[in-house]
Every structure is written in C-alpha cells, then in structure tokens.
Amino acid sequence: MNIRDNRAENRFETEVDQITAWLDYAKSSESLAILHTDVPEALAGRGVGSALVSHACDVARAEGLKLVSHCSFATAWMKKNMK
C-alpha cells in the first residue's frame, strides 16, 4: 500500500480502488499525535486503517518522536500491536 505524507493537510493518505483513506496528525518537534483515522466504508475490513496507523508509528519511531493517540481506532491498534 502506497502511503504518502500530505504535509499541507497534516495527514497520511493512501488510495485504494480510487478511494482515499487518511490519518490526520499533528506533529511538533517532540511528538506526532494521531488525531483521527478516516477509512470510507467501501474500504472497511481491508487493513487500510491498520496500514495508516502502522505507518504513523514507523514515522514517529524513525524521527525519534513521542507517539500520542487521540483516535480510538489508533489507540486500540497500538495496544494490540505494539509492545
């Protein structure tokens, strides 16, 4: 899945079957906050949201940023997948 950083909109985006899904974030010099994950119903159950959250986690790790989640989906994903 190709995920791009749309810095103008402060979100990570991906397109599947010509439908865009995204994860809104706020980034500072110390943290990356996940604000909201939006996966249209047509893409539900296909791992798109998980891929977006995983990507955000990878970016935070690579940039040495503290990861903060204000999104219930992202919080649940991180509890299940990060140790």
Automatic annotation (TrEMBL):
It comes from the Bacteria. Signal peptide: none annotated. Pfam families: Acetyltransf_CG (PF14542). InterPro entries: Acyl_CoA_acyltransferase, Gcn5-rel_NAT, GNAT_YJDJ. Residues 4-83 form the N-acetyltransferase domain. This is N-acetyltransferase. It comes from Acetobacter sicerae.
